[in-house]
Fold:
Amino acid sequence: MTANLDCELVLDTAYFRRWLAAAHRLFERDSARLTALDAAIGDGDHGANMVRGFQAVTAGVVQTPQACPGDLLTQAGTTLTNSVGGASGPLFGMALRRTGKRLGAEPAVSAEQFAAALRAGAQAVGKLGGAVPGDATLLDALLPALDVLDRELAAGATVLGALEAARAAALDGADATGPMQASKGRASYLGERSIGHQDAGANSVVLLFEALTMAADPQGQPEPVVTPEQGEDTRSAGAPAVRAGGRVGVVLVSHSSEVAESTAALAAAMVGSGDLAPVRAAGGTDDGRIGTSAELIHAAALEVDQGHGVAVLCDMGSAVLTVRALLGDTDGRTMPADTRIVDAPFVEGAVGVVVTASAGADLDMVVAAGEDARTYRKG
Structure:
């Protein structure tokens, strides 16, 4: 059966659509288990978050079909970043987005190309989260799986055989996170008490590799039912404290104070129970009218600056002009170093920027996450 499947296996857009659909079903199946793993040392929302994210991915595949694997996975990664709270969205979103960009515009890719693209995605995740092997994170499942995938392909294994071996390596890697002491994420707050608990993200990597093998069979791949009830929100309320060391700050500039404040609240809600990056709304004029205020924007930028740069999103052109004037101001209103305007739609861009900044990404990654929102299509 494996051989028959593999001789027909083409890594084209249809295959990757099947992969995302299979991942959606697996996260639905294992949501409770993932949540239980996360509840022991984290926020207890990982399973629901992954279901919510892949529900949105599945809907996006239907609503906005992509012509090549690279565009499909880039879209999926951006969707995860903007639809999943906590660290899961930006981390898994970054992995898929970077994988997709590495694949480019080819209508079909080789297994070696896909393996190299996944490796680029893993490297981006490590940079985003500041994690290395042994930190009890998703990398402890992902990197061993990629090592085995490369080795099996180099040895002449079939594509499906290599993927199955990679899945087994991911499972071993996820199991190995149990004896580790977590040093990243909310689990790290527990210190030695995190020992003895597997990482939920590493177990999600196992499901993604399982989905890769499932996608090899074009038959028996029914589309999952997308309903509003799936992925019920279990995130806790409240704004957590900012992590030591600082992160990229975010300023949301709108002509309306209400729009700026509500967009900031929406973006913060998407972070959920994760650590929220510094975000300030700078909407309206000093006296509450419609417009923009250089003084409000300048004060907000200074307030969010933690020494890692400031990303500014604007709702309309005149707001951009106000920020540009501030960046070139010679009258003593010095903006923080590395302040950059993000060329992105206001609401979608704000969500991507705030979620990614909250995960600890550097300024380049934060800006890229916002600008990816320019590719969204809604019709």
Remarks:
- The first strand starts at residue 11 and ends at 12.
- Confidence is low (pLDDT under 50) at residues 186-190, 222-244.
- The CA atoms of residues 7 and 330 lie 67 Å apart.
- The chain has two domains: 2-214, 249-375.
